[in-house]
Amino acid sequence: NAGVTQTPKFQVLKTGQSMTLQCAQDMNHNSMYWYRQDPGMGLRLIYYSASEGTTDKGEVPNGYNVSRLNKREFSLRLESAAPSQTSVYFCASSFNQETQYFGPGTRLLVL
Amino acid sequence: DAKTTQPPSMDCAEGRAANLPCNHSTISGNEYVYWYRQIHSQGPQYIIHGLKNNETNEMASLIITEDRKSSTLILPHATLRDTAVYYCIVRGRTDSWGKLQFGAGTQVVVTP
Q1: How far is CA B33 from CA A76, B49, B86, B90, B99, in A?
Q2: Which residues are CB-contacts of A41 (< 8 A; sequence separation ≥ 6)?
Q3: Chain A residue closest to B46 (CA)?
Q4: Cβ separation of A4 and B100 shorter than 8 Å?
Q5: Distance from CA of A105 to the nearest CA of B (A)
Q6: Model confidence over A10-62: pLDDT tens digits?
Q7: Inter-CA distances, B2 with A71, A101, B70, B89, B91, Å
Q8: Helix or strand or coil: residue A15?
Q9: Max CA-CA distance within chain A?
Q10: B8 touching A, CB under 8 A?
């Protein structure tokens, strides 16, 4: 049981480049989330998916898009990366929006 | 949303119990108290949660006062691997997005 996995672990982008962060969970959870964490700050919710086929904006959705590919996978896309998107990105999952379990994170540097 | 107040830091000797306080004086009747921790460079890890009764699992115990305005997370035998930032979070079971608001937390350092 791997829990929540994220790829890649680390990425460097140039301003304007695009990339997709991948997240998968094997706990049969129906809800999945994307957060970002900046130095000295708490986690901020970017997007969430309450169930397969639905996605909704969180606190800081601008500059991001998401896809709930199936029940297991929830991807986060940066269409045109900006230095302000330099952050650590965490994916999480839960059953019926209850206790959330987090992945190890993706560290993104945008130059 | 109810807010929480935690001390910014605390030290604990290895092998001793670590008692982490949290104030949540504006908690409402249907809100749970959750505890997470984040070890450096890792994702947040769920520890325990409770509504009004004390709870215990393999990681920790959660003591909630009768008026529910404060709680204490107890790590019974702290180890060096327990060094982390500990977050006390209050949320309703039906909060939108399964919302989790992480504050500043308490930096716990376990020393040999």
Answers
A1: 29, 5, 13, 5, 13
A2: none
A3: A101
A4: no
A5: 6
A6: 999 999 999 999 999 999 999 999 999 998 778 899 999 988 999 999 989 99
A7: 32, 22, 12, 9, 7
A8: coil
A9: 38
A10: no
Cβ-based neighbours of B42, under 8 Å, separated by 6 or more: A104, A105
Tokens linked to B38? 């984040």
Task: List, for residues A76-91, the tens digit of each pLDDT value.
Answer: 999 999 999 999 999 9
Residue B1: which of B23, B22, B31, B21 has the closest Cα? B31
Cα separation, B92 vs B69, in Å, equals 15
Euclidean distance between CA atoms B110 and B27, whole angstroms: 30
A75: amino acid identity, one letter: S
Question: Which tokens go with B52?
Answer: 């009004």
- Supply the DSSP symbol for A18: -
